[in-house]
Amino acid sequence: MIKAIFFDIDGTLLSSLDGSLANSTKSALKKLQNKGIKIFIASGRHVCEIEEQPIRDIPFDGYACLNGQLIFNKDKEIIQSYPLNKEDTKNALKLFEQKEIPMVLVQDKELYINFVNEYVKNAQDAIATDLPPVKKYQGGNIYQVTAFSNEQESQSIMSRLDNCKLTRWNSYGVDIISNTGGKSIGIKDILSYYNIKQEETMAFGDGENDIDMLRFVQIGVAMQNAKECVKEVADYITGTSENDGIYEALKHFNIL
């Protein structure tokens, strides 16, 4: 019996075309909670960015943000966190301050960028999100680095961050986190917090950073707009968000 369902945001809950939330998806989320099934966000986004999205008024039961690096309960209180280690933080800051590649530093309460170029504008437009503020590092833990870079530049960054891993979420954008992290790690923390078993879980996703999550849960669902590498690990491929894919998959598995 499924007791917890985890949702990616961009391209999953929200349309990859215009960032909208389908009425069928909103209805499905409400019906799940009415049945006593907990719903969670599992996203590369920061919790503060969720406040800007069409899902902001939905009372999720918890959030695995920054690809599992910051975990929140339903009241958005941190229940677990996984910052970059000191050496990788030091090297990331050197790259950030060189300003050769646009890089976002993501901390527990904010995120900001070193400079903005066309890569940044195109990537942020694709996920219907405002440009992050330009700001200098003021100290504190870094939980994720988002770089706006091509493949060669991304590999150059990774050669400096020995204990990190990278997932691409856009032609222009990559998320960099600790190599011990990932959405599945954040999900484990949430399951422990709510005393839910792994075999009682389901997840929806579309990006490379969703692969470990879809493998971990009992039922992993890839959206039709997902990359082939994501579809290959899924138990089921549903329609796109704008074509009622979330609702259709829940009906397929007799959850609704």
Question: How would you explain this protein's 3D organization?
Answer:
The protein is an alpha/beta fold and about 260 residues long. α1 runs parallel beside α9. The strands form two sheets. It has an eight-stranded mixed sheet with strand order 5-4-3-2-1-11-12-13. Strands 7-6-8-10-9 form a five-stranded antiparallel sheet. The protein has two domains: about 150 residues, HAD superfamily/HAD-like (Rossmann fold, 3-Layer(aba) Sandwich); about 90 residues, Hypothetical Protein, Haloacid Dehalogenase-like Hydrolase, Chain: A, domain 2.
Number of strands: 13
How much strand?
A: 15-25%
Q: Compute the average pLDDT.
A: 93
How many domains in all? 2
Measured between the Cα atoms of the first and last residue, the distance is: 12 Å
In N-to-C order, the SSE pattern is EHEHEEEHEEHEHEEHEHEHEH
* Main β-sheet description: 8 strands, mixed
Return Rg in Å. Answer: 17 Å
Unreliable segments (pLDDT under 50, ≥5 consecutive)? none
CATH topology of the largest domain: Rossmann fold
Q: Helix tally?
A: 9
CATH architecture of the largest domain: 3-Layer(aba) Sandwich
- Structural class of the secondary elements? alpha/beta
Instruction: Indicate the CATH class of the largest domain.
Output: Alpha Beta
Shape: globular
- How much helicity do the residues have? 25-40%
Strand order of the largest sheet: 5-4-3-2-1-11-12-13
